[in-house]
Each structure stands twice: as structure tokens, then as C-alpha cells.
Amino acid sequence: MSFKLLAMAFEKEAQEVVKKEREQEITIYARMKNPAGLAQANDTEQHIQAEVKISPTRRLRVRKTSINGQANEYTLTTKVNLGGSSENVRTFDERTAKISEEVFSMIRRTVESYQKKARYIFNVEKMTVTGNNQSLDIEGMKFEVDVYTNSNGSQSEWCKIDFEIQGMEEKFKAAGIDVQDFNISLNIGSLPFKPTDFIFMSDDTSEEDKAKVKQIYDEQFLIFNDRLPQEQQENGVEDKPVETGETTEQTQTDKGAKPEQSEQESSTENPEEATEPQTGTAEDTQEQ
């Protein structure tokens, strides 16, 4: 990817305010046993996005976001992985600026692969955080669940679940809990789409889980430009929402799947770990 092209992306939008934030998140991959349960989400968004990996810890993303009743939004985001603040929690420096539809399309056409996904947002009524021999009930958090469409138009059986925790820090401080030393129990298995076969992301990753996640991306999450007809390479896949429902027949990613964890509760203590592959070539792979 030419740095001249990247410069153009910001030049046209030079007057836009760049949004800066420090993002802390827990990321989990899971297979869905009941995709119809996604319909119970509190909110939904449609994303088409492409990523360029600059180094193992630095990448940029362009995204088109569609929300019913609102104009499409086109953004460019840079992300720098600052490492883990605790087990299974990754911290990013994230900066976002608005770009034009033209710049978005230029980058989407250039990358090897990109993503088309529906984001389902599930609100968490209350969760308990413990640390320093204290416990704290926190409200207003949410799960962001991404479900993908591949080059063949098939909906993925696997999903990506993000749980952002940066909003907790002030509440931690007020309660005297060190953000570097806490435990969170996430009742993931109770979500209505019945996730199972969990793969947790962290800065320490096994080669086995890296390979598993890459396989999921290659077979279910990514749209490869060179596998599309020329017209779709130019204009993108048909821009229609990902439909909720039963997934297509099982792919090879189900073969040799790991035993299911309890659906009642999955804790971030001693999870299976994984690293995401990169989008835009076949990581923190595509996001969020």
C-alpha cells in the first residue's frame, strides 16, 4: 500500500477532528449454535472494512458503517497495540478521522481481502468485577458481536465477540481497585445465539490457536478481491445486510473443534488464547 495513498486519505479531510482514545478490550472467538438468537440484539450496524498491516503492532483500517435511518459514515482508523494491561486484556492507541467514500473505495479495491459483517450489540445489565479483595457491580457495558459474510456470500458459523472495558477505569479508581489487577467473569454462554468453542485473544498466543483463527478468517470472515468478478472487485460485494438465521453447512473449521466450555459461564481466567490474522492480506485481525 502506497504511503502517498494514505496521505491522500487525510489530506482531503484535513479539517476533520481526529478522535483519539485508549481502547482496552477482551476479544473472544466463538462458534454459534443458535444464530437466530442474534435477532435479540439491542442494536445492529452493518460494516464493510479493509485493513492494512504496517507492522505486528501497527495497522490501519478504513470502514463504511451503515445504521438504519442514518447516512453512511466512512472513517480511517489507526491502531497501535500497546500490549496487555492484564491477562487477556489488550490495550490500543486508536485514532479515527472521517474520510470520503472515494478514499474508502480506493483502499478497499487495493487490499487482497476485506470484510463485510453485521455487528450485533448486546447490553449487559450488570456485571461484577473483583480485585484487591473487593468487588464492584458495573452497569452500562455491552458485548459487540461481529458476524461475517465470505466471498461466496455465506454467513459465518463463527463470530468475534468484543467487550471493551476502558469505561471501567474511573469506576475502578473510585472503588480503590487497580485496573492492572482485576478479574472479570463474563457470562458469555448465556447470550441468546449460544456461543461455544471459545478462543480467547491475548498477547501470549499458542501456535495452534493462531492457526485456528487464521483458518476461520480465510474460510469464513474474509472476502478476497481476486476471487470476485471484475465488477464486484471495482464496486464491492452487494451492499445488503447480513441476514440472521441458520448458517450454511459446516466448514472445515469445525473439524477437530475443541470441546465446548460450559455455556453457563466462561471466565477470563486461564482461557485458550489466540492471535488474529491480518485483513487486507489473507489480527487483532480485522476488527471491530
SSE layout and pairings?
Elements: H1 3-11, E1 19-32, E2 43-55, E3 58-66, E4 73-86, E5 89-98, H2 101-110, E6 113-124, E7 127-131, E8 134-138, E9 141-149, E10 155-164, H3 169-175, E11 183-186, E12 195-201, H4 207-221, E13 223-224, H5 230-235, E14 266-267, E15 273-274
Parallel strand pairs: 12-15
Antiparallel strand pairs: 1-5, 1-10, 1-12, 2-3, 2-6, 3-4, 4-5, 6-9, 6-13, 7-8, 7-11, 9-10, 11-14
What key phrases describe this protein's structure?
single chain, 288 residues, alpha+beta, eight-stranded antiparallel beta barrel, four-stranded antiparallel sheet, 41% strand, globular
Describe what you observe in this structure:
With 288 residues, the protein is α+β, with helices and mostly antiparallel strands. The chain has one domain (3-274). The chain has helices at residues 3-11, 101-110, 169-175, 207-221, 230-235; strands at 19-32, 43-55, 58-66, 73-86, 89-98, 113-124, 127-131, 134-138, 141-149, 155-164, 183-186, 195-201, 223-224, 266-267, 273-274. It is globular and about 60 Å long. The strands form two sheets. It has an eight-stranded antiparallel barrel. Strands 8-7-11-14 form a four-stranded antiparallel β-sheet, covered by helices on one side.
